[in-house]
């Protein structure tokens, strides 16, 4: 089982007073994150953007990782190549991989405006990067002689959009991906704004035969398709049709359900079981999350640990947001009332299928039935989510375990009382409660 950390948030170098030093700052936390059970860090875009205080989602020079004096300075907003490599190496020492944020749809910060002869429009499309890698002009963008209209997808923020059918663009993206995997040591990619370009590009970068430490290496790949369940499902079909079926998507539909759960006092918990998210349709392709750098005014403001508890006990690959864990203090090491305790439950117990044992508008109870093989021993758990704001709530359910004692290992809510142990009868029945506006995870003792 695995848990990733989104190791940044919007303008994090400024907010944490770590301008041009973010790679070093993250590195200081790596040992503790490894001890807490994180297996991967999703890092922000590593290349020089349109300015040296950019978050990197406006790429200018893909091959300047903070070592060329351009766009206002030498380092990126996060640091330089040597500091990035040191962070990745330290992460590996503590059993943590790293995922690179890939922004391949659009560019920004061009050096000159020029006329596209195909439509007569003036655009900022002349790029002369100081790295000397991937200089480009109008023919590297849409419309191009290689493809006069966008192949598919949406435009982003009025930026020029790369034409991946141009072989020079295609070759540069391969070279960039190889730099990240084979030279820097990344384990995977998060692709930004995948609705803006063809699935074929991601498929090709995903299935390239990378060589890492002398062996062929297949990266983990997850896409940001910010849309509804059917749109994400369609994209997963398209992109996995040109790969070996390993590509995942962030589960935006589930995230919005979890926001409603946390921020609407009388949210109907039966909505959690209606199937309208990636997790319920294809859990092996679901990257689940509670918050990210793009949520802004849509951020969850109440009882956020209820949402984290949900993604940690269900299938999918859960992602924790740095700002929640550190700045909001929800990590809470050495406590049963925070994200660290939820990670421990996820890693040690949350195996096997999920069976919903009870659901009504205010109460959700689920069991993970457990999983055992030569490499894994996850005995399962019982999870209770209580939406009532004024009382503990639970009900009698029939689990798969007969005559079994259960102990609570992770809980939180609007009551600081310690939940009691539970024991099932000969038919596997017992009552499992959770605190008001909270959750409790019970595991076999």
Automatic annotation (TrEMBL):
Matching InterPro entries: A-amylase_thermo (IPR013776), Alpha-amylase_C_pro (IPR015237), Alpha_amylase (IPR006046), GH (IPR017853), GH13_cat_dom (IPR006047), Glyco_hydro_b (IPR013780)
GO MF entries: alpha-amylase activity; calcium ion binding
Transmembrane segments: none
Listed SMART domains: Aamy
Binding-site positions, Ca(2+) 1: 105
A Pfam family the protein falls into: Alpha-amylase
Positions of the Glycosyl hydrolase family 13 catalytic domain: 2-346
Cofactor(s) annotated in UniProt: Ca(2+)
Family: Belongs to the glycosyl hydrolase 13 family.
Record-given protein name: Alpha-amylase
């Amino acid at each position: 089982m695995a848990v990733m950390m989104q190791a940044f948030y919007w303008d994090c170098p400024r907010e944490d007073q770590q301008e041009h030093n973010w790679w070093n700052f993250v590195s200081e936390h790596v040992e503790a994150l490894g001890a807490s059970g994180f297996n991967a860090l999703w890092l922000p875009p590593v290349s020089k953007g349109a300015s040296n205080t950019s978050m990197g989602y406006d790429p200018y020079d893909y091959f300047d990782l903070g070592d060329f004096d351009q766009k206002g300075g030498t380092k990126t907003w996060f640091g330089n190549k040597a500091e990035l490599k040191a962070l990745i190496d330290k992460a590996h020492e503590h059993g943590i991989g790293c995922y690179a944020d890939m922004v391949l749809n659009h560019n920004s910060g061009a050096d000159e405006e020029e006329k596209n002869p195909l439509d007569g429009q003036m655009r900022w499309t002349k790029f002369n990067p100081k790295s000397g890698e991937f200089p480009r002009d109008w023919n590297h963008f849409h419309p191009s002689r290689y493809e006069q209209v966008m192949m598919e997808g949406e435009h982003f923020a009025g930026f020029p959009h790369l034409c991946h059918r141009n072989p020079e663009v295609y070759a540069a993206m391969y070279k960039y991906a190889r730099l990240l995997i084979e030279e820097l040591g990344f384990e995977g990619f998060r692709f930004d704004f995948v609705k803006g370009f063809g699935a074929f590009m991601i498929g090709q970068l995903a299935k390239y035969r990378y060589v890492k430490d002398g062996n062929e290496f297949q990266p983990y790949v997850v896409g940001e398709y910010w849309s509804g369940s059917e749109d994400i499902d369609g994209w997963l079909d398209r992109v996995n049709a040109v790969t070996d079926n390993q590509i995942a998507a962030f589960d935006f539909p589930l995230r919005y359900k979890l926001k409603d759960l946390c921020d609407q006092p009388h949210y109907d918990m039966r909505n959690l079981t209606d199937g309208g998210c990636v997790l319920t349709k294809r859990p092996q392709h679901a990257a689940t999350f509670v918050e990210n750098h793009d949520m802004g005014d849509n951020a969850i403001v109440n009882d956020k640990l209820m949402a984290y508890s949900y993604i940690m006990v269900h299938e999918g690959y859960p992602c924790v947001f740095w700002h929640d864990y550190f700045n909001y203090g929800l990590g809470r090491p050495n406590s049963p009332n925070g994200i660290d305790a939820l990670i421990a439950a996820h890693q040690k117990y949350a195996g096997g299928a999920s069976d919903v044992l009870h659901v009504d508008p205010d109460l959700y109870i689920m069991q993970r039935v457990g999983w055992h093989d030569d490499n894994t021993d996850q005995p399962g758990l019982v999870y209770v989510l209580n939406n009532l704001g004024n009382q503990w709530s639970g009900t009698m359910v029939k689990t798969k375990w007969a005559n079994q004692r259960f102990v609570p290992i992770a809980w939180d809510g609007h009551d600081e009382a310690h939940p009691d142990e539970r024991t099932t009868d000969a038919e596997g029945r017992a009552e499992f409660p959770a605190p008001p506006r909270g959750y409790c995870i019970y595991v076999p003792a």
